[in-house]
Each structure stands twice: as structure tokens, then as C-alpha cells.
Amino acid sequence: MSVRPPVAVLRAKFDRILPHLDERRRRLYLASEAAAIGHGGIALVAAASGISTATVSRGLTELAKNPVPTSRVRTQGAGRKPLTVTDPGLLPALESLIEPHTRGDPVSPLRWTTLSLRALASTLTSQGHPVSAATVGRLLHGLGYSLQGTVKTTEGAGHPDRDAQFAHLNATATAFLDDEQPVISVDTKAKEWLGNRDRPGRTWRPGKDPIKVDCHTFTTSDQPVAIPYGIYDIATNTGWVNVGTDHDTAEFAVESIRRWWQRRGQVHHPDATRLLITADAGGSNDPRRWTWKKHLAAFALESGLEITVCHFPPGTSKWNKIEHRMFCHITANWRGRPLT
Fold first, then answer.
1. CA 305 vs CA 182, 186, 311: distances in Å
2. CB–CB of 250/291 below 8 Å?
3. Closest by alpha carbon to 276, among 172, 123, 128?
4. 195-237, pLDDT tens digit by residue?
5. Domain residue spans in the chain?
6. Residue 89, C-beta contacts closer than 8 angstroms, at least 6 positions apart
7. Residue 19 pLDDT > 50, yes or no?
């Protein structure tokens, strides 16, 4: 008389052994357990293992034929063939849809397309190649495509004196700092429209409680704006922001520097007799603007400072210290929040 093991005992044993077996060995092992139990073994093993009774029964049928040990999991020819085999024209059709819309170098290892997966799948289906959007995604990855954005890498034509310009700027700033004279990096951050408007970025909030902003943000003539002009003091690693409310002019730029000097600069540099300003070559501090020079000369006369200005060459403003030492923190602080 055989004693049937309880389901809990079988389940504990199966949980330890089955994860180490492939599909075929799992089926044959469960069938051998069911055969050893005898009557009702199929149902008992199926309940303990979570495998269907049909699978256990198929394993018993295979055991009855005394199968030869093999590393093959399924029988020869089993499984559905890939679409690329049953439909040889699928890949050429997909490539022909993408190529006219490919951006960048067509022989690059990574390419991207503006067409959505659903649009590609729909077009291929209408051309006689029925396929799902998920399959199109897998085929694209296999062809070396991926979703990508643009990367700012092309600097344009380089000036033969570019290195010399940067060397001169660096040497001048080093000389000022060694002489304990202030060196500031200045720039105007992009104009920001004020109000309950949508802003890029995300911020941590209680669940399902986003900040509610206006659906439509039309700009009117009386729309309030904020124009932050930043002054970054390289020696003291401190910053100052003067916020304008109308236009980014040369007078506004010099007035911002004046306010920094009156409220912070002369406090941090009480013995200063000279001031070095590093700035972009455009905007309110454009070297070609006579108003910039006029107001700067007036400030120099008023403060008694000997002022030197070094402008970065065109296209190199990203090397301006203020960009990655101060403005980045302002951008992070403003993300996902309306400027009200």
C-alpha cells in the first residue's frame, strides 16, 4: 500500500528543483513523480507544481516511449518561425520606409527615425506585411536603429588664433587673481515670462497633486517678464543676480555690475583697484555696442576702478564660468514651477 505525499511536501521539493531544469526535463521529472505516486498522481503533481495536467500527461507519454537523453528542449521543427523567415520582404519594406526619414549619417551604427512604431506597423500591414508595433521595434533594434535626439558637437569653422585667444584670457584672469584683484564672469540668462505658466522639468510633489497651471499661455504686450543678469565672482565663488523687468540693454548690464560692486564687490575686495570682466561676445555686453562702452566708462569713473573686459570668441559662450557655476543652479531651482 503506497502513501501519497501531501501537496505541501511536493511543492517544497518542486520549488527547489524545478528552477534548475529546462522545459523538457521539467516535464519528464514531473511525469516520473506522477508515475511513482500512481492513481491521482497527475492531479496531485499538477496542483503542487502549478503545471497543467496536460503537460504532466504528455510527459508520461514521452516516458512510456523510453526517450533517449538529449540536450534539445523541443522536437525538431517545433515553434513558430520568425516573421523575417516567413515574410522575406518584411525587412526590405521596413528599411525603405525609414531611409527617406533617417537623420544624420545613414551608415552610423545608431540611427533614428521620426516615424512612430505604430505608424510603421500600420503602413507595413497595408503593404501586405502584417506586423505589430512591438515587432517593428525589435526589428529596428536589430537593424541598429534607436531613438535619439540631437547632440551639439559641431562648432563651425575654427579661427586659427582660437587657442591664443583662450590662452590670453586665462593668463589675464590668472594675473588679476594673483594680484588679489576681482575677476567676474557676467551674462544674461534667457528672458522668463512670469505668471501661472507651464514650465519644463519635474519636481517632487505629493502623489497625484501636480501644480495646476494655465492651459494656454498667450503673450501680451503687458505680460510681465524677468531678465536675470548674473555676476559670478570667481575668487570668492559667490554670485549676484540682478533681475530686470523690461529689456536686456547695455545700460541694464552695467547697472547690474554697479549694484554688485556697491553691495558685494567692494565688501569682498576692499583693496581692489582693478576689475576684470569676462563676458560673451553678444547681447547687452556686445563689444561692438558703443552704449556698453559708454556706461562702463561712466561706472569706472564713478568707482575709481580700472576696468578690463575680455570677451569670449563667438560660439564659445559655454566656456563662460557663470554658465556652469551659477546659472545651472537657477535652472534647477526653477524646473517644474511657475514663476509667479
1. 11, 17, 19
2. yes
3. 172
4. 888 878 777 778 888 888 888 777 777 778 889 999 999 999 9
5. 7-64, 83-142, 162-334
6. 129
7. yes
Q: Quick check: 109 pLDDT over 50?
A: no
Alpha-carbon gap, residue 319 to 328, rounded angstroms: 13
Alpha helices in 113-261 (DSSP H): 117-126, 133-142, 162-178, 250-260
Take residue 280 and report the three cell numbers written for it: 560673451
Cell 583662450: give the residue. Answer: 166
Side-chain half-sphere CA neighbours of 141 within 13 A: 5
Q: How far is CA 173 from CA 64, 95, 168, 185, in A?
A: 89, 55, 9, 10
Model's pTM, two decimal places? 0.57
How far is Cα of residue 30 from the mean position of the Cα atoms in its chain? 49
pLDDT in tens, 42-86: 999 998 888 899 999 988 998 888 876 766 666 665 667 888 888
Q: How far apart are CA 301 and CA 56, in angstroms?
A: 97
Answer for the pair 40, 66: CB distance below 8 angstroms, yes or no.
Answer: no
* CATH C-level class of 162-334: alpha beta
Three-class SS state of 123:
helix
Q: How far apart are CA 328 and CA 323, in angstroms?
A: 7
